[in-house]
Amino acid sequence: MSLNGQSKIPQILKNREAEVLADWLGEQMAAGIRKDLLKEMELREECREFLELFTDAIQQGNFTNIQSPEWRGLKDMLASVSRSRTQKGFTPTETANFVFSFKQPLFKRLRQELGQNGETLLEEILSATNLIDKLALWTTEIYQKTREEVILRQQEELMELSTPVVKLWEGILALPIIGTLDSARTQIMMESLLQMIVQTGSQVAIIDITGVPTVDTLTAQHLLKTVTAARLMGADCIISGIRPQIAQTIVYLGVDLADITTKASLADAFVLALKRSGFAISRSKSAI
Amino acid sequence: MERIAILQIGHFLLVTIQVDMHDRLAMTLQDDLTNRISQTSARGVLIDISALEIVDSFIGRILGNIAKMSRILDAETVVVGMQPAVAITLVELGLSLKGIRTSLNVEKGMALLRSSLGDSEGGSMDGDAEK
């Protein structure tokens, strides 16, 4: 920028910090800050800190590159503001507006100082806009990153939750699967099933896919792998809970499930498992 | 030379693999086992691999071959006690060991052999054993 070094902004901010701060706060209150999510005190504190760091950083006269070290303090501060707002439930626009709303009070001061000199005013406003836009984009970036972290954490938690192996009877295990089957989940599922087979010495395992919304070739392949691995260890697998649509899909996809025992419901599979283990169920007369 | 012991229990042969299976050892086992089956006219072979932590594609294939050879010599093969990690590896390698029967441990494997022989041969097996 041609104005670097001679810009008035650092000086204006230094001399009239209190005024700018008051204006800025007024601006944000007028725009309707979310009072349910953020107290005025907190906002005031955030604005004060921002202004302080901004004034400090801008004294170096660097308007273009916010990656340079003098801007680090401000960027860290904005990152923490953005993060806390994400968690409080602000929208991305509201978060970015925290920075954007700083333009108004700043430009007002500039106009007061340089009102008579149109050319310089324009240059100053251009460079300031540029800088503030970059800072606002930075808050959006952090906002998004925080959201992604939340999603990632939830995914991991789901993964841990989703593969329980339950013992139904002496020598009979059940593995109710809920949700989509991907490679990572199948791996965990397979490991925990095989581990349980060893621990309990079970000879029959029922894999219930009632909770699996769709079955594609990949899912079917994962199921086949699990069944084969269990068979290698000496346990029979029964797949149950196949819905009509899924049965249709499996046939249309050309997946071969001929070697695997399949049952429509978990109850049917359980009865078969009991029969294979040599148990018989009978109703006692008194219960009728 | 290192060899894997083959024990005879009634009409069955029991092979317990306790050491790391390298390729030559596997070939020797295949040789010894087929010889023993024909010598003893065994009806079933139990291969216990519970101590085996690594099974590569070659060993997997040898196990498959042993099962096929035994079938020709009229003996059923049951592989028992495969570790979960080994099972996963074999599946990932694409070896599902289709022709081999499997069981969780030696006891269950023995029961499996007995029941399958009992089904096909009726009471004649027991009669032989008592003589």
Structure explained in plain terms:
- The complex is a heterodimer of chains A (288) and B (131).
- Chain A has 288 residues and is an alpha/beta fold.
- Chain A folds into 2 domains: 9-156, Globin-like, CATH 1.10.490; 166-278, Transcription Regulator spoIIAA.
- Helix content of chain A is 62%, strand content 9%.
- The N and C termini of chain A lie far apart (92 Å).
- With 131 residues, chain B is of the alpha/beta class.
- Chain B has a single domain (6-122), classed as Transcription Regulator spoIIAA, CATH 3.30.750.
- In chain B, strand 2, helix 1 (23-40) and strand 3 (44-48) form a beta-alpha-beta unit.
- In chain B, helix 1 (23-40) packs parallel to helix 2 (57-72).
- The longest helix of chain B is centred in the first third of the chain and has 18 residues, at 23-40.
- Chain B is globular and about 35 Å long.
- The chains are: A alpha/beta (288), B alpha/beta (131).
Order of helices and strands of chain A: HHHHHHHEEHEHEHEH
Number of domains of chain B: 1
The amount of beta strand of chain B, in percent, is: 15-25%
What general outline of chain A do the C-alpha atoms trace?
rod-shaped
CATH class group of chain B? Alpha Beta
Helix residue percentage of chain A: 55-70%
Q: Class of the largest domain in chain A in CATH?
A: Mainly Alpha
**Uncertain parts of chain A:** none
Report how far apart the termini of chain A are. 92 Å
What is the overall pLDDT average of chain B? 84
CATH architecture of chain B: 2-Layer Sandwich
Please indicate the count of domains of chain A.
2
| Oligomeric state of shown chains | heterodimer
Beta-strand portion of chain A reads: 5-15%
Please trace the helix and strand order of chain B, writing H or E for each element: EEHEHEHEHH
- Architecture of the largest domain in chain A, CATH level 2? Orthogonal Bundle
Number of strands of chain B: 5
Strand order of the largest sheet of chain B: 1-2-3-4-5
**Radius of gyration of CA atoms of chain A, rounded to a whole number:** 32 Å
Averaging pLDDT over every residue of chain A, what do you get?
A: 85
Count of individual helical segments of chain B: 5
